[in-house]
TrEMBL record:
Annotated organism of origin: Roseibium marinum
Protein's UniProt name: Lysylphosphatidylglycerol synthase-like protein
Organism lineage: Bacteria, Pseudomonadati, Pseudomonadota, Alphaproteobacteria, Hyphomicrobiales
Keywords annotated in UniProt: Membrane, Transmembrane, Transmembrane helix
Residues spanning the membrane: 6-28, 49-69, 81-102, 114-140, 146-168, 188-210, 216-239, 272-290
Origin superkingdom: Bacteria
The keyword Nucleus belongs to this UniProt entry's keyword annotation: no
């Protein structure tokens, strides 16, 4: 187990290093064309893209809140959503420890322990990966030149089979027991969480469609590419906020379908808007939580 964990750490670190170095080299090679590509972006498009990023925060917060409510039924839905948004900026600290610290502090009245919060995180992360894979099907099909139905239908059927684990409960009760221990809820709530996270990736990914209007790429591909790159950010993240690995994955996908300068422009703007969205979401949630506390005192 220790050797496997060490190997995974080495692989994740190596991939992140390669991604960061590649982005830097890509930037150095195409910086002049990048400036021209950025000049074509209208301020109104930036505002619209920022709005989609902010809107996309809400379904993600709802998915986390629903899993939290299964562990802590006494936490109101609005409070759970605000706690998640308030801790969003914490993922930009090493290991995301500040996010857990903020959640623990805000939920200390409900006695939310670190193990409980970790279980909620794991359940949300697994649902997010599955949702991102589903939304990412069009991008994968475009990259490998396969009709979407050839790849999409088997994936959807396989996903339905995985989410149908409820039928296994009587025959192999140990399966749901193991899944619940690592943070995966029962099949029906988990399927609902996956659906909500799919909505979150789609809404957030629309900022790519807005920014990529002038690149010639389809909106479906851009949204799908963003979602698929998020898997790398969840699974292989080493730097805080998945900086580097997610951006490298997104740049790699985009550069296969459009001009290098346009791909770099979209990857960099996407990262900037995502960080700005987390900062704004954290600030607004902090204000809302402060008002709720004052209203009850």
């Amino acid at each position: 187990m220790l050797n496997a964990r060490l190997a995974l750490t080495v692989v994740r670190s190596a991939l992140t290093l390669v991604a960061v170095v590649w982005i830097a080299a890509f930037f150095n090679q195409h910086r002049e064309k990048l400036v021209l590509a950025l000049a074509e972006i209208d301020p109104g498009e930036l505002s619209s893209a920022m709005l989609w990023v902010l809107v996309g925060l809400l379904p993600g917060a709802l998915a986390w809140q629903r899993l939290l409510a299964r562990e802590l039924p006494g936490v109101p839905a609005a409070r759970g959503i605000l706690v998640y948004l308030r801790s969003g900026i914490g993922k930009y600290t090493p290991g995301g420890v500040l996010a857990f610290a903020i959640q623990h502090r805000l939920l200390q009245a409900e006695k939310a322990g670190s193990i409980l919060l970790l279980r909620v995180f794991m359940g949300t992360a697994l649902a997010a990966c599955l949702a991102a894979a589903l939304i990412g099907v069009p991008a994968v099909c475009a990259l490998i030149g396969v009709n979407i139905w050839v790849l999409g239908v088997p994936i959807v059927l396989a996903t339905a089979a995985v989410l149908g684990l409820a039928c296994w409960r009587r025959q192999w009760p140990v399966v749901p027991r193991i899944l619940e221990r690592i943070g995966v809820p029962a099949p029906v709530p988990f399927a609902a969480t996956v659906a909500i996270m799919a909505g979150a990736w789609t809404l957030t990914g629309l900022h790519m469609a807005v920014l990529g209007l002038h690149t010639g790429a389809s909106a479906v591909f851009l949204v799908s590419a963003y979602s698929f790159s998020a898997i790398a950010g969840i699974v292989f993240a080493v730097l805080p906020g998945a900086v580097g690995i997610r951006d490298g994955a997104l740049l790699a996908i985009l550069s296969l379908q459009m001009a290098p300068a346009d791909a770099l422009m979209l990857a960099l703007l996407s990262r900037a808007l995502i960080i700005a969205g987390d900062v704004i979401g954290t600030g607004l949630a902090a204000l809302a939580l402060g008002r709720r506390i004052n209203a009850h005192t």
